[in-house]
Amino acid sequence: QTRIITIANQKGGVGKTTSAVNLAASMALAGLNVLVIDLDPQGNASTAFGIDHYEDASGSFDVLLDGEAIADMMSAAEGFDSLWVLPATLDLAGADIELISTVAEAERPFLLKAALADFLADHEMDYVFIDCPPSLGMLTINALAAVKEVLIPIQCEFYALEGVQQLLRTIEFAKERLNPDLEVSTILLTMYNSTTNLSASVVEEVRGYFGKKVLETVIPRSIYVAEAPSFGQSVMTYDPGSTGAVAYLAAAREITERKQKG
Amino acid sequence: QTRIITIANQKGGVGKTTSAVNLAASMALAGLNVLVIDLDPQGNASTAFGIDHYEDASGSFDVLLDGEAIADMMSAAEGFDSLWVLPATLDLAGADIELISTVAEAERPFLLKAALADFLADHEMDYVFIDCPPSLGMLTINALAAVKEVLIPIQCEFYALEGVQQLLRTIEFAKERLNPDLEVSTILLTMYNSTTNLSASVVEEVRGYFGKKVLETVIPRSIYVAEAPSFGQSVMTYDPGSTGAVAYLAAAREITERKQKG
Ligand SMILES: Nc1ncnc2c1ncn2[C@@H]1O[C@H](COP(=O)(O)OP(=O)(O)OP(=O)(O)O)[C@@H](O)[C@H]1O
Ligand SMILES: Nc1ncnc2c1ncn2[C@@H]1O[C@H](COP(=O)(O)OP(=O)(O)OP(=O)(O)O)[C@@H](O)[C@H]1O
Ligand SMILES: [Mg+2]
Ligand SMILES: [Mg+2]
Question: How high does pLDDT run on average in chain A?
Fold first, then answer.
């Protein structure tokens, strides 16, 4: 049974891409089959795995707007035996507008869901992670309509708390109108800075609000995490002993174990 | 002559809001008349100045979608003599879709420009800063159509470089189709971390590409900058001696001085 997880938060720079990349890398290094779908036109997740995503490259734009099959548009990530990436290209930025003029309103939110159903009918994947842009437009809506689980990364900083209500409302809307199975399954606290009370108070507030959904593992701020993508690597392979890598490995293990408990 | 500056970058978490807030605060503390326009539905800039922006509060949504006057929707920022904020409310998140169904396509990009022209006809402002969400939708397009100058904050991290090309193309599009006076006047490097080569290499690359447009002043990563909004303050008043506050003051001075040189 494939577990498909959308990583969403319209607040910018909270660690969506970094979490998608490093959780996927951790699972793949543990021998699981993993697909990363990059829905952010900036293509940061594609870059992190060293995958070309210039304007006309194959990717998620072709799947959503031209009905191409995921299997034909995805690339294998170098250095991994069982990790594939459906890259994002710049033309994805125009998806919201293009979808309005080319696809009937009722079908628009379900393009990714349909493509994923086709793909998983004959490809064995253990995990699929979907990286979203920092907005609540049609790309994020497609990601919410396609999954049972949402993982929300929350940066341990003040502004990051503000947007959570808005995100929860959007998820609620998607659950009511598009996808009754949708749940916020996981909250991952990121960029924890131990030198300030600010981080600790954010952690306390988030645990108070979300309870057990919040992973025990908190990802610390670590320079090696930020350096890794400039070498086309995940921190898991760039510096496996760093606090960031150790934390992402522990978070990945927690996520896989939670599944077993159901 | 009022100087109106849009602060834009679709990459999330690069310091758009932090720069809008602290540059505006610096200018206001120096006695200038300053207006901050918050176009981000998350309303982080509104929060930073301690301004209520619950769902039905007055703000930029009313100006763009109901034709209200800026002067009637703005609030004075507490603790300042000459700083006003046009707050963002959550309903702004629906602006893209609502504008498509209520305003003719040709007029949509110019709603803010028209409202600002009315406002400045009888309100003396030295600076107007417009904070944008991390996307290139109709809110950011309105901000680009309304100004002569764009300030692009670039975080001194790897992913931040990826999105710049896309942003420059959008600005070029806005200049050709909507606003021939539009220029990228200022590049501000943010969250510089002196403990890693990554920051230094980003600075080098950005100075190499943008030359003189890049401010001499680079904003360092400073925990006091991140803490200030949790007290409803700018770092300028929260901890004026911190490296972050000193840098934003220097950046504000550089911006005002550049104007004089024309
Ligand atoms: N634990 C960490 N320690 C240090 N730096 C981090 C950490 N996690 C992420 N970063 C850095 O912070 C920045 C923001 O992270 P990232 O790009 O993953 O966030 P995002 O939510 O995907 O952003 P966007 O909203 O633009 O998609 C990046 O430069 C990244 O390298
Ligand atoms: N110089 C700095 N030092 C330390 N932290 C900073 C600095 N500048 C910004 N921050 C923090 O980094 C986070 C991102 O900054 P900010 O919210 O201003 O970015 P943004 O570009 O406006 O984000 P968004 O894309 O969501 O609108 C915030 O938590 C902020 O407090
Ligand atoms: Mg991202
Ligand atoms: Mg912001």
Answer: 95
